[in-house]
Design goal:
mainly beta; globular; 19-stranded mixed β-sheet; about 400 residues; two-stranded antiparallel ribbon; Jelly Rolls
């Protein structure tokens, strides 16, 4: 299911030959698919302009197209997430099969530049009295981290450049679009903002490939409003680009691919409740390129209002199930992983003195086992009084 374009297209190169071979197959498992050729197919097939320079989507599929019976070459041609090998990755295949048919129907395009971005984690020191690592009874477990803009679960490795085998190259998640509101009894005089997303890179690197939902609550004087959308981004090449409208409570599916270095990146998002979705290819503009050193499931408050991030919308709780990541070796990573390279990130307020959003992975959070996450907000994000 995952791929990386470590080679470029050339006339009658092995990648081109692989393309024509794939086109002739009715069923191709991920293990049988050349990843570089598959990445090239997504890049070359994304021919529909979104109205945002460098961001393209895919032509609609023919009537009666069945993604469950399609080869990866046809999934790439029409902008569907490629199917995983059901034997090697049964968890990934199950969520793909449950969600992929929504991509038969394409949403009305918004392609709205939100004038803000979801960037790398702004890693911060622990607030006074907090522990810096989750160590229980002398046994090593996931590390506890803090950031000014992120909360969630981050699987990490120690890579400093892209590696075909061990870089993270795919994150798959399903979650509900949170209801956005201002803190109880408060009116901030502007927008409070919460985004839910999965992606690759950003914890200790300068880029992020990502997609998910956006929930905004506006309050000023007697005026109140809310705005919700599904969005994609590749920081720093692109800011948040809202691609279609969603409703609070809708079930979102996000499938974020990562490919080597400065190659095109592809992110697929769908609103399962509305029964539509689309994949988007984002061409490189600027930045360090992708490393694949982290894969994450995150609640974030975007940047920026003046020198600060936006106030976090009071989302109360955000439910994810399932969510997991893969590396180039097809190793599966999950939120409840009990290894120190898994980081459970807590979001801090602007003063850095209190946690305003946190994640509880696994059974304790959702009752759904190792693939679940539940997010909560608290303190001044919930009750008011956050100070810039």
């Amino acid at each position: 299911m995952k791929f990386s374009p470590n080679s470029k297209w050339g006339f009658l190169t092995p990648a081109v030959i692989a393309f024509f071979v794939l086109c002739s197959l009715a069923h191709v498992t991920k293990a049988q698919t050349d990843k570089a050729a598959l990445a090239a197919m997504y890049s070359s097939s994304a021919t529909v302009s979104t109205g945002i320079a460098g961001i393209r989507t895919f032509p609609a599929p023919p009537e009666g197209f069945d993604p469950l019976a399609a080869a990866d070459s046809d999934l790439a041609r029409y902008g569907y997430p490629p199917h995983p090998d059901p034997q090697a990755n049964p968890d990934g295949y199950a969520i793909w099969a449950r969600n992929v048919r929504a991509f038969n129907h394409r949403p009305v395009s918004l392609s709205k530049d939100m004038g803000a971005y979801n960037g790398p984690a702004q890693i911060a020191p622990a607030p006074p009295g907090a522990k810096s690592a989750a160590l229980q009874g002398g046994e090593a477990g996931p590390t506890t981290g803090y950031a000014s803009n992120w909360s969630g679960v981050v699987n990490t490795n120690k890579l400093t450049k892209w590696n075909t085998s061990s870089s993270f190259d795919l994150v798959v998640s399903e979650f509900n679009v949170p209801v956005a509101q201002q803190p109880f009894g408060a009116c901030d005089g502007g927008y409070d903002w919460q985004v839910s997303w999965n992606g690759v890179d950003g914890w200790g690197s300068g880029d992020v490939v990502q997609g998910g939902s956006s929930s905004q609550a506006y309050c000023s004087g007697g005026t109140k409003a809310e705005f919700y959308c599904g969005w994609v981004e590749w920081y720093p090449s692109y800011p948040i680009i809202c691609e279609f409208g969603v409703n609070p409570g809708d079930v979102m599916y996000a499938d974020s691919f990562a490919t080597a270095g400065t190659a095109d990146q592809t992110v697929c998002i769908s609103d399962q409740t509305k029964d539509f979705g689309s994949c988007y290819t984002l061409s490189y503009v600027k930045g360090p390129g992708v490393i694949g050193n982290s894969a994450e499931a995150i609640v974030e408050r975007p940047c920026c209002v003046g020198p600060n991030n936006y106030p976090l919308a009071n989302y109360v709780a955000n439910f994810w199930y399932p969510s997991f990541a893969y590396d180039g070796h097809d190793t599966e990573f999950f939120p409840d992983s009990q290894i120190t390279s898994t980081v459970i990130v807590n979001m801090l307020d602007d003063l850095g003195d209190q946690v305003i959003s946190y994640a509880v992975p696994g059974t304790a959070g959702t009752g759904e086992g190792k693939f679940g996450i539940t997010f909560f907000d608290e303190n001044c994000a919930r009750e008011g009084g956050c100070t810039p």
